[in-house]
């Protein structure tokens, strides 16, 4: 089932997510719905707060990046096969050089900015069968994980840009809050909630 994506300005996007218990109701259905919602919006990641749930869960499928001809064959293969759900994740280490990449967000349509993040992470998490993993990721996979991880910490990519850039996108953000933006996927806007 395709769920509406919560737009910028909704308080749920600022909440730190709570851990998911092993007996969380309909977890596999929720994960499936999140993937369907993400694919419908042509995203590569989606966090639970973006569908209105303040819990520690996000999903990723980096396959769309695999078409980038500037990447090596090895990088393309790695990206094309990377599809995962992360439950109750904790990034235990961020290391390497910071590098910039032009990020966007399904909750903040039509806004893209360069964000700098560390190149390598170590993350502990559970998969949807509640098997625990500790993995190290780098490059674009690490970046997508960091972006989605920020969501479950109540952080948006716009929090990681300069004050000047924040001023430049202020009107776009206001339009999202007022429901004046028209992405080609289902969204729920703050201004339209009470109606």
TrEMBL record:
Output the InterPro entries linked to this UniProt entry: Peptide_deformylase, Peptide_deformylase_sf
| Cofactor: binding details | Binds 1 Fe(2+) ion.
Active-site positions on this chain: 148
In its UniProt entry, the species of origin is given as Flavobacterium beibuense F44-8
According to the UniProt entry, what is the EC number of this protein?
A: 3.5.1.88
User: In Gene Ontology terms, what is one molecular function of this protein?
Assistant: metal ion binding
List the coiled-coil residues: none
Top-rank taxon, per record: Bacteria
Q: What is this protein called?
A: Peptide deformylase
What's the stated role of this polypeptide?
A: Removes the formyl group from the N-terminal Met of newly synthesized proteins. Requires at least a dipeptide for an efficient rate of reaction. N-terminal L-methionine is a prerequisite for activity but the enzyme has broad specificity at other positions.
List ligand-binding residues for Fe cation.
Answer: 105, 147, 151
Against NCBIfam families, the record matches this protein to:
pept_deformyl, PRK00150.1-3
Q: Does the keyword Iron apply?
A: yes
- Single Gene Ontology BP term? translation
Q: What does the record give as the reaction this protein catalyses?
A: N-terminal N-formyl-L-methionyl-[peptide] + H2O = N-terminal L-methionyl-[peptide] + formate
UniProt cross-references to Gene3D superfamilies, sorted A to Z: Peptide deformylase
Q: Name one Pfam family in it.
A: Pep_deformylase
- UniProt keyword terms in alphabetical order: Hydrolase, Iron, Metal-binding, Protein biosynthesis
Q: What class of enzyme is it?
A: hydrolase
The family classification in the record reads: Belongs to the polypeptide deformylase family.
Q: Which cofactor does it need?
A: Fe(2+)
């Amino acid at each position: 089932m395709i769920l509406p994506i919560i737009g910028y300005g909704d308080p749920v996007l600022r909440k730190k997510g709570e851990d998911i218990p092993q007996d969380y109701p309909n977890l596999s259905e929720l994960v499936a719905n999140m993937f369907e919602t993400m694919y419908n919006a042509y995203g590569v990641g989606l966090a639970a707060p973006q569908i209105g749930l303040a819990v520690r869960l996000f999903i990723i499928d980096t396959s769309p990046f695999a078409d980038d001809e500037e990447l090596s064959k090895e990088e393309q293969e790695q990206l094309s096969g990377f599809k995962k759900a992360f439950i109750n994740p904790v990034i235990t280490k961020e290391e390497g050089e910071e590098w910039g990449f032009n990020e966007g967000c399904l909750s903040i349509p039509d806004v893209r900015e360069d964000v700098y993040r560390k190149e390598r992470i170590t993350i502990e998490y559970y998969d949807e069968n509640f098997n625990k993993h500790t993995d190290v990721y780098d490059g674009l996979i690490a970046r997508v994980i960091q972006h989605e991880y920020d969501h479950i910490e109540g952080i948006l990519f716009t929090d990681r840009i300069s004050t000047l850039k924040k001023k430049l996108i202020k009107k776009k953000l206001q339009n999202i809050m007022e429901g004046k933006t028209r992405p080609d996927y289902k969204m729920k806007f703050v201004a339209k909630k009470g109606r």
